[in-house]
Design brief:
The chain is of the alpha/beta class and 188 residues long. The chain has helices at 2-6, 11-16, 80-94, 161-187, and strands spanning 8-9, 25-28, 43-46, 50-51, 61-64, 67-70, 74-75, 98-101, 110-122, 127-138, 143-155. It is 28% helix and 34% strand. Helix 3 packs across helix 4 (161-187).
Length: 188
């Protein structure tokens, strides 16, 4: 039930776009509640993730064998790197880790650098996959203190766009939960 509540159509935009039959419907991803509560004095800045050009947009990729396409009638509401950065900040804050976005941070102790490697629906195999690489850099000396890759892959029973978005949201949150634990352990 909570997975269905996490992905919400943006009603206002849907009404505004009702006259545009070809316009994709925007969906909003929400941060996952943190599994544990941490309270560290150290603060970190979440950098906007890097991504290959195909992943640096508002649309969801569909792998159709060797080719790539876009999921019809679905938009993320913002560029995927911005969506993921916002989710990471919100998830870390939910765990009481002092995190800020790239634009709102001033004096911080660490940079969390992310790379979106995979965020797609594999149509032939009916699976969704999310892979995010994370690197934590201490700003005092510029050294990488920890790095790790987080991945999730889930099978789907349906190829319905809404089911795909819900499954991608769940896969993203399966990467954010261990990412929060990883960050907390590294800055402790």
């Amino acid at each position: 039930m909570r997975a269905l509540l996490r992905v919400v159509g943006v009603v206002t935009l849907e009404i505004l776009l009702a006259g545009c039959a070809s316009a994709p419907r925007p969906y909003v991803f929400h941060a996952v509640p943190a599994p544990k509560t941490y309270a560290w004095r150290a603060s970190l800045r979440v950098r906007t993730p890097t991504a290959v050009r195909a992943l640096d947009g508002e649309r969801i990729l569909v792998r159709t064998g060797a080719d790539l396409a876009l999921l019809p009638d679905v938009s993320l509401g913002d560029r995927l790197p911005e969506v993921i950065a916002a989710d990471v900040v919100e998830t870390l804050r939910g765990a009481h880790i002092r995190a800020s976005g790239e634009r709102e941070s001033a004096n911080v102790d660490f940079d969390l650098q992310l790379e979106i490697r995979v965020f797609e629906f594999d149509a032939p195999n009916k699976t969704v996959a999310v892979t995010i690489a994370a690197k934590l850099v201490a700003l005092a000396n510029g050294r990488t203190i920890a790095s790790k890759v987080f991945s999730a892959r889930d099978a789907l029973a349906s190829s319905d766009p809404k089911a795909i978005v819900v499954a991608l949201d769940e896969a993203l949150h399966k990467t954010l939960t261990p990412l929060t634990t990883f960050v907390a352990a590294a800055i402790h």
